[in-house]
Structure prediction request, 299 residues.
Amino acid sequence: MNISLKQLNVFMSITQHNTLTAAAQAIYLSKAAVSMALAELEKQLGHPLFDRVNNRLVLNQEGHKLLPLADELLSRANNINQLFDAEQAFAGQLKIGASDTIGNHVVPGLLSQFRHQHQHFSQSVFISNSRLICQKLRDYELDIGLIEGNTPHPDLIATPFSHDNMCIIAAPEHPFCHIKKPHITDLSPSDWILREAGSGSREFFLRSLAPHIETWHEVFELNTTEALINSVAAGIGLGCLSTLAAQYAVRDGRVTQLDSHIKGDNIKMQRPFWLVVHKDKYHSPLLKSFIEFCHQWDN
Prediction:
């Protein structure tokens, strides 16, 4: 058996792009070269690694067995290439996934400090909701995820690295804004604008606030924070989101923050930020350093 790094690189590219054409474009090879490399790899292993579904290649059970090992071997090969490069302490690009609030309000400052401290300037950041970030971690499309909602998936390991304060916002003219020292139960009945399924903000509302509100109704489900804030400002309903995300709209008077004086039993408007990696992910020196940096980071 003579498996090459080129074959493993082709394999990893196909897992991320699902078609030979897209995979070939990503690694600057011809479609024929990619097809030949995959065919030779599958021949040497004695198993197909993908199911052919129409024009797409879907990773099968045998492919999932190879995935973590291929990822590790390519990472180690990259480390070898840079081992004697004195100008670069860490090898490779760091692929970071971040959920909406963290990606927009935490990652810029965190990465700025990391780049300055470690002199590593090759990172990519993918911002989406927590569910999609976790899916990409399971598919080895990302090295690490920084998310707002915890994940129970057995293939992922999540540890808290910071925290966030949540808030309830309303249009300035909303009737609830005129209640002095309201209790959480005073928010019944109420209309709410929530983020989409898979969002950490939605998860927090459903877990921590909704059980204390006797009657509430979901008006909209939106997939961007700005759309949520604009809908709240227009008087359509209440919103629950991070104080980091709401701060500018509150400062500008577009919305009012209610929970600064809301009372209630066991109401905690704080949530952890989670650092998530695949349990089988190879921890390169770069990834190890970034994980340590996140846990020691002081925002």
